[in-house]
Structure formats: structure tokens, C-alpha cells
Amino acid sequence: MRAGLLALVLWAWSLPAAAEWGLADRYPQGALAVGQAAPGSTVRVDGRPVRVSPGGLFLVGLGRDAEGPVSVAVRAPDGTETTRRLTVTTREYRIQRIDGLPPKKVTPPPETLARIRAESARIKAVRGVDSDRAGFAGGFVWPVAGTVSGVFGSQRILNGKPRSPHRGVDIAAPAGTPVRAAADGVVALAAPDMYYTGKTVMVDHGHGLTSVYAHMRDLRVAEGQVVERGAVIGTVGQSGRATGPHLHWGISLFATALDPALVAGPPPAAQ
């Protein structure tokens, strides 16, 4: 596995005056950008304030259907204000058909709805955390090597029924293969049995950026545990809604799903 910031866009802001960009102005849907402002700056993305680390790092996430331009405004400690408008390039997404799922996993029975809502609320709560850690700064690696069997953004048709677009990537690998944390962070959720995602771990990387690892066979971490990039957090399985051993891996900036393949670069098998 290779650490990389290949798809993380790093902007350098000069001190204390105008911005020094030195990079392209166009970014694809699903991308994550890591900005670098002068320490003590304030940053707004499309008018919304975002967290800035003591060292000046901040994040911009572009969702599956993001439209541009995206306005990034920085106010330096001396009061200088600079605004950059980013163009968002559109992507074409695949249609993926998955058959053979248990019917109750596609259309859940009424008695399971309360459980599903409670589990969804737990996941939503984790994605709402805006911690001051900056685990993302060291870059991301793929959590497991294997065959990419599902890509970000694809329209899912499950047992012939259209469902929401895929929020991450699926990586097929033998059951029991170690799953590793994609970046430094703290375990914000370690659930042994979720209806859809089975054995599930979520890691908080800071500033609202989280990663999720689903369908695992074993969990090797507990909530509140600090993990480093590459640390084993579980093993590949097929718990929850799955037709075979694989890992579902997702990355989100708050509620905005991002493309892990853009964040971490090409998968290990493609190196």
C-alpha cells in the first residue's frame, strides 16, 4: 500500500498577501482538496466557515453531483482577503446491477425499520463531528489490496430495484484479509452488527473527514482508540448486505461522500 496525496489538491497561500496557486483550477466531482492558509486565517467555502488547523490546513470536498464554481475565500490574519473560484468537472457514472441479495436486505421488513433508523442516526452523528485533529494531513492509503468490484458514484440496481448511488468503493479480497486504517485518526464507531453494513468501523480523521469500513468479519479496534495509518482495524468478511467477501470503503466530508480512489490514488493492484 502506498501513501499518497495524489488527488489531494494542496493550495499554498502566501504570507500575508495574495494567494500563490501554482495548480490547476479544475477539480472532478468526488475530489477532496486540502488547503493551506496562513496560520490564524479564516476560510469560507461557498460562504460557509470551515475549520482551519493551527497550521492553516482546511478541507474542501466536492460531492458526486457537485456543481461549480466553488468559492473559497480566505481572510489572512492581517485582514487581507483573497477569493478563488474553482471549476468542477462532471463525471459519467456506471450503472451496477447486483442480484442474488436476500430480499429483506433490499426491501427490509417493517419490524427492522426502527433498527435501521437508529443505526443510520449513529452513522450520521459520526459524520457530523468536527474535531480539531488533522489525521488527514499524512495522506491516505488503500485499506486492503484486492479487486475493485464496485466504484464510487455508480447507480445501484439491487435485485432489479434502483437504489441510491454507491458512496464508496468495494474491494473483493479473501475472507480474513487484514483491513487497515486508511489514515491517522480515532475510532468513532465500532459496530459488531449493523443491518446493512454488518461489522462496521468509522474513523475520524478531523475537520469532519471520516472513513468507513463495512462488511468485515472481525473488528480489531474499539471506539475511542487512536489509530495510525496502516494499523489493522479488522478483517475482510461478508457481514450485512453482501454477496461475497469484500470491503466497502467510504470517505466523507461531513455528509458529502467523496471518491476514495481520488483521495488515495490508484489501488495497490494498479501500481
Characterise the protein shown here.
With 271 residues, the protein is mainly beta. The protein is built from 3 helices and 22 strands. The strands form 4 sheets. Strands 11, 14, 15, 16, 17, 18, 19, 20, 21 and 22 form a 10-stranded antiparallel β-sheet that branches. A 5-stranded mixed β-sheet has the order 3-9-8-5-6, with no helix packed on it. The longest helix is centred in the middle third of the chain and has 15 residues, at 113-127. The protein starts with 8 loop residues before the first strand and ends in an 8-residue tail after the last helix. The relative contact order is 0.19.
Brief digest:
With about 270 residues, the chain is mainly β.
* Backbone shape: globular
Helix content: under 10%
Structural class: mainly beta
Poorly predicted spans: 1-24
Sketch the major β-sheet: 10 strands, antiparallel
- The SSE order reads EEEEEEEEEEHHEEEEEEEEEEEEH
Binned strand content: 35-45%
Q: Tally the helices: what do you get?
A: 3
Radius of gyration (Å): 19 Å
Query: How many angstroms separate the termini?
Result: 9 Å
| Strands, count | 22
What average pLDDT do the residues reach?
Answer: 86
